[in-house]
Structure formats: structure tokens, C-alpha cells
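Replying to the earlier thread about multi-chain prediction with a worked example.

Input:
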Amino acid sequence: MSAPTLRHDRALAAGLLLYARSRTVPRALVVLLATAGLAVWAAHSLNAHIDPDRRVPVVALAPLFAAAVIGSSLHTASDELDRTAVRPWWRLRALHLLALTGLAAALLPVAVLGHTSVFGPPAMIRNTLGGTGLTAAAATLVGARLSWLPAFGYVSAVYLGAAGARGGASGVWAWPVQPEGGTASWATALVVFLGGGALYVARGARAEGPRS
Amino acid sequence: MTLVAERRRERSRHPLRAEVVRGFGPWAGAAVLLMLTVALASNSQQWQGGWAETRERLHTASGLLAVPLALAAGCWHGGRERRRRTEELMTVSARGPLARLLASALPLVLWVVAGHAVATVLAWLATWYRATGDSPYPVTPLTDAVVLASAVLAGHVVGRVVAWRLGAPLLAVGGYVGIGVLTYGTGENALAHLSPVLDGTTASVPVWWQPAAMAVWAGGLAAAAVLAFAARRRAVAVLPLTAAIAAATLLVQTGDGLWHTGPVARRQVCDTSTTPQICVNARYEALLPQVRKALSGLTGRLEGVRNLPVRFEDRPGRPARDEVELPMLTPIGRSVVRGRLTDPRQYAWEAGMALYGRAECDRTDPRVQRIDDAVENYLAPSALEKDFDEMYAKGSEADRAELREQLKARARLRGMGEQERRAWLSEYFATADECTPDGVPTL
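Result:
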């Protein structure tokens, strides 16, 4: 490998590391791991093998908190400084969002292995994607540090209001509490993820001044 | 002159006004309102029309959803000075730390409680529009409002202490899990009575001091946190903490005695002009005309028939010897939705089955079964009867023979004269709950 290429790779790696640290990504990774661990413990202690429906709190709350972690990690204290740099930020934003979402979507389903058809890994992955889409959109609209608020309000309202709602339009609006990986709930979660993700990747998190 | 007057007016605005009308407060209030509205509206058929059901649903939504959100909102707001980097600046102000904390936290409390209040009023309006009897229960939402205010204050203190970006969402999810475990924890869980979610059934009401004890328990904890963090003499925090512990002890010690059947639920309103008489629980008294109309076919055909129960009763507990239970109107969302009987025919069939069900018998003689079927067909047939007949008609030879016998029995009962049928039915109802076929009159 030639010297300039090596230097370029090292610079790229250093840049990525700086980017990750400026977004407290290492801490977000640790919290995501801890969330997955807690989800495994919670699903186990709920004795879900008796009734898979008992996993609803885990399937609703663990992805919600993971989405809050990812949403909060989109904040940077060096926002104004970043704006002075001439580089395509959208790639880093996309990489950041996809990497953390992928990690959460890979870790959280471990908690609900077995009984795959009812509140199993597909539901967990769907909720992780949908929740992250919500927080990513919220980060663009209200700021990354408060991005958990809309997702938390929506998912918890649906959790209580639509418990047991099946069929009809409930697959669309009550997607976080649908037991199986139904087409409507998956389509909604994917649209939310792609829409929210695209909005964030294109615009970045809303600038938060000292008054926010 | 005009300019001077305008300036004076501007100057006279209270400094707290900006805290109240601007910033995070309105958003938090809107979030609470929106969340409660969505949670309530999406299953309104299960509570609209019943005041106790509305109380329960509001109480659960407030305790399980709004309290974690209030904790998180308080926590987020508590970290505001740190995010603005104005902590040091604030310490040089003339007011003490407690006044500064309250000036910052109370506007948020106001907005969160306002969001809850608007959601409560909306739910009440929805129920008032389709009310079936009873009256609103204002004490429970008031207690919930105190619990919410306490949650905001406690969250605010956490936000001041914990300098972590994920503090607020963690408090929200942790609050949810904590309340869930406290309320629905496994086994005999005496601590559940400390939960802001747990309540009795729709027929029960709390003892008069339960709301006060719950308010002291939640408010005492929040006040202790606030005073321990910001009071000039922090030891003062022991006072509210002691009050909270005393209230908690009272709640846990009393346990299930905190709730008793409400005076309205013990009463019933009756229509004594029918046979049997029809009584509906006073909580659903407005449904009496609909129930009477649904059962009019059944009661009309039973006029003049003897050996019947005196009335359909609808009070908690088992019916008396000469009464039968009115088919269940509750839980709202099945037989009754938004103050209307959903399926009067099915309801009449259920009422008929309460009169001649033989549900307690392990085995019924085929001849008696045919007679029961004929009575059922004459008085209040099931909506599924036609389907069953068609199924038998397509079944085996034995099924078809049984159907022929059933049709004959039905035709014989319908073909009787009025007097003859009344006498026969009187004889039939004398043995309607007996499992042996001996006394049952032939058809």
C-alpha cells in the first residue's frame, strides 16, 4: 500500500473517530448493550413462555429506549463548528444512524427468541426501526436532545389505547403493538424509518442554541 | 402619553409570565393532552357512557402514561439551566435556591396539570353525551393531578442533580417499568396500594381518606426531594418525608379495605309492570327502557305464566332465591357500547337462558333438551338457531332425525291455545332448573 493511501485511510479513521466521539457514540453503544441486557433479563423474568403476550412491555419499551438513545446520540455540542467544514455530512449522518439502528435491531431480538410468531424478533426489529424513524424525524424538527419526547408520547399512548386492537386500520396507526409481523405494521414502521431517517440524513439535527 | 402608558403596562407584567407562556411548558402540556387523548379515544367504546368506567380509564392512563411523561418532562426542564450554561449566573440572583427552583418548575407543573385537566374534561364530555346513569367522580382526577404535579417536581430535582442527556428518557421508561412492577407485580403485593394506577373495580369507590392519603404520599415524596435539594435548612425535608411514610403505611396496612362497593352500585331501578320484573343497576338506570324493549318479546309471552322468578336483578353478588341475574351489561364495550344495547336479540336470548338454562346440570335427558329447545324457540330464539338447524339438516341421519323431532316439538308449543300454553309453561317453569326428567311436562 502506498504511503499517501495509508495516510488517507488513517485520516479517514481519525475523522470517523472524532465524529463518533463528538456525538458520544461510544457511550450510546454501551447504553444500547445495557438496554439489550436488561431486555433479556426482563423478558426472562416475565415468564413469557406461559403467554407470549406478556412480552408486550419488553417489545414496546426496549426499542423505544434504544430509539431514545440513538436519537440523543444525534446531538453534538460542536454543531456550529461542524457547519464551517466543507464535507458531505449526509454520508456520516447516514452511517451513524444506520450503524446504531442496525446494532439495536440485531441485539434486542435476542430478548424474545422463541415463539417467533407472537411478539417475537420480527416485532422487536419492526419497533426498533419505527421508533428510530420517529426519533430521527423528531431530532430534525425539535432537536436531538428532546427527540425522545414525541416517540415516547406516541408509543405509550398506543400501548395503552390500542392493546388488543387487531385488524382494519389498527395495523397502520397501532403498529408498535401488533403481535405478528403483519404487512401493514411493517410497512408503516419502514415508512416511518425511511422517512424520518431521510429527513435527518438530509437536514441534520435541528440546531440547538443556548436558549433551548 | 400613549407611549408612556404602553411602557408602564409592559413593565407591570409579572416576571413569572415569561416562564409560564414560553419555553417547554406549553409543549409538555400539549404532549400530556395529546397522549391521554389518543390513549382514551382509541378504545372509547370500553368507557364512554359509564362514569365509573371513565374514571377508571382516565386514572389508568394518567398513572401509567402521564406520570412517567411528567417525570421525564420535569427532568428535562430541570436540566435547562445547565444546558443554557446559566447556573452560575442564577446563583448570584437575589432569590434563594428554593424560590428559583419553584419559579422554574411550577409553570411546568401548571401546564402538565392543565393538559391532564383538558383531557379529563374531554373524556367527561364524551361520557356525559352518552351517560347511562351515575355521576362524575371528580376526586380521582384531582388526586391524579396532585400525583402528576409531584412527578414533575420530583423529575425536576432529578434533572438538576443528574447531568446526563439520557436522564429524561431513562426516567420515563424507568418510571413506566417501576409503576408497572409496583402495580402488577406477582403474588400478594401489598405495596401495590402505593401505586398511582391501582384502583378498585367499576362498582367500587375508595374510602373517603384514600385520595388524601395518596396525595400526601406522592406530594410528600416530591416535597421532600425539593426541600432536600433547595431548602435553606435541608433537614426540613424530614417533615414531608415523615408525612409521606405515614400515608404510605396507612395505605399498605388498610390494603383491600381501601375500596368498598359504592352506594349507587348497591341500588337498582326496576320496572315492575313486566313478568318477570326487570331491574337494572342504578349505575346504568338510563338503559332500563332499552333493556325493557329488548326483553319485551320474552316478557310479553310470559305474561300470566306462574312459577317464574320474581325479577331479573342487577346488583353485585348472587341473586336471591326468587330472582335471576340480569344478563351482564358490563364490561362496557360488549353488550353496551356508547350507551346503546348492541344486540337486543342476543340480549333477550341470554335473559331467556337465565330462566331455563339447566346450566348446572352435568347431563340433560334428550327429551328434556327438545322441550328446552322448543321453549327457547318460542320465547327468545338465538340468532344462531337457524345456522344450527341448517347444520343438523346437513348432518348424519341421527342429526336429521333429531332436527325433525325438535321442529315437531316447536310446532306443538306454538300450536297450543293461549290458555293451554300458559298452563303448560307454568308447569314447565316449576321444573326449569331440575336435572331429572321426571317432573318436566311432555310436549
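The beta strands of chain B are 204-206, 259-261, 268-271, 277-281, 311-313, 323-325, 336-337, 340-341.

Feel free to reuse this layout for your own posts.
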